[in-house]
Amino acid sequence: MAVRKFKPVTPGQRNKVISAYDDITCTTPEKSLLKPLRKSGGRNNQGKMTVRYIGGGHKQMYRVVDFLRDKDKYSATVKTIEYDPNRTARIALVQYEDGEKRYIIAPNGLKVGQKISSGSGVAPEIGNSLPLGEIPLGTLVHCIELRPGTGAAMARSAGAYAQLTAREGNHAILRLPSGETRMVLVSCRATVGIVSNTEHNLESHGKAGRRRWLGRRPHNRGVVMNPVDHPMGGGEGRASGGHPRSRKGLPAKGYKTRNPKKTSNKFIIERRKK
Predict the structure, then answer these.
(1) Main-chain dihedrals φ then ψ at residue 134, nearest 5 degrees
(2) Distances (CA, A) of 98 to 32, 76, 121, 184, 227
(3) For 64-75, how does the pLDDT look when each residue is reduced to its tens digit (9 = 90+)?
(4) Distance, CA of 18 to CA of 201 (rounded, Å)
(5) Overall pTM surpassing 0.85 (yes/no)
(6) Which residues, at least 6 apart from 69, have a Cβ–Cβ distance to it below 8 Å?
(7) Which of 59, 119, 221, 270 is deepest in the core (most CB within 10 A)?
(8) Alpha-carbon span 147 to 26, nearest angstrom
C-alpha cells in the first residue's frame, strides 16, 4: 500500500495526496452483499436539521460486513480485496467451503487465495478470528468484541490495532489504539493482524470539492458567529470568544463528560492519553 502525490497542474492537485489503490483487486462489489443506503442530510424523521454540516455526497451502497465471524465449521478463501466507500479500511470478499460469501475487514497483508478460519482451536495467523484466551501474548489484533457474541466493536478503522499485553483470570488486558488499557473477557473474539490501508492518515483531500463528494458541507467556527448564534460569537474585531465551548454552552478542551458511575469504569485500567 502506498500513497500518490500529484503535480500541481491545477490548484486542487497542489496538496492532493490519495491512496494508490494498488492493493485493490476488484472494482465491482458482490451484488448479494449490497444494501441501499439513504442519506439523511443531517435531518431527523420530522425533516428538522439535528446535525449540522452534512449533505450532498456521492450515492453509495452499503456493503454488509461480517463482524461476528461466527462460521466456525468451514474455512474460507479470500476472493477479492475491495474498496468500501463507507469505511477507511479495505474489505475482503471471502467464500466458505459451503459456497457462502461474506465481506470481512481486510487485515494488512491478506492476499487473494489465502485461507482463513474462525473459532476455537484455530492457529493465530493473519486474518483468523479466535478467542482472546487462545491468542499469544504480545500479538497485534483488531476487530475486537466488547462482549462475547456481539460482534467486533474496537479497532476497526484503517491502520488500527490493539496489543494483547497480559491475561488475568477471565480477562485479557489490551492496549487499545487510543492508548487506553482495558480488560476484556477472554471469551471475546479478535482477529489477528493490523487493519489494512495503514497509510490512510497520510491522505490529503487537496480541495474543498472532495469533501463535498464525501457528503460534508462547509463548517464554520463559533468565534466568527454572532452572539445570538453561538456562546463564542460576537466582539469587536477578531475577538477570541472566551472559553471554548459548544453551541449549547458545554465546555470543550478538557471538560470531563464521562459518567463517574459508569459500569465499564472497572474494566479500564488506564485512561487514554490526552
Answers:
(1) -110, 5
(2) 16, 9, 20, 32, 64
(3) 999 999 999 899
(4) 10
(5) yes
(6) 104, 118, 129, 143, 152, 189, 191
(7) 119
(8) 34
Query: How far apart (Å, rounded) are the C-alpha atoms in residues 110 and 193?
Result: 9
Give the C-alpha separation, 164 to 172, whole Å.
7
Using pLDDT thresholds of 50, 70 and 90, give the confidence band for residue 240: confident
**Which helix (H) or strand (E) element contains residue 208?**
helix 208-213
Q: What is the pLDDT of residue 238?
A: 84
44-85 pLDDT, tens per residue?
999 999 999 999 999 999 999 999 999 998 999 999 999 999
Q: Looking up cell 466493536, which residue turns up?
A: 153
Portion of the chain with pLDDT greater than 70, in percent? 99
In angstroms, the Cα distances linking 155 to 26, 89, 140, 152, 176 are 25, 11, 11, 8, 7
CA distance 254 to 62: 36
203, 3 in Cβ contact below 8 A? yes
Task: Determine contact, residues 128/116, Cβ cutoff 8 Å.
Answer: yes
Residue 1, pLDDT above cutoff 80? no
Residue ranges and CATH numbers for the domains of the chain are: 3-201+263-270 (2.40.50.140)
Helix (H) or strand (E) holding 144: strand 144-145
How far is 269 from 180, CA to CA, in rounded Å? 8
Q: How far is 21 from 160, CA to CA, in rounded Å?
A: 18
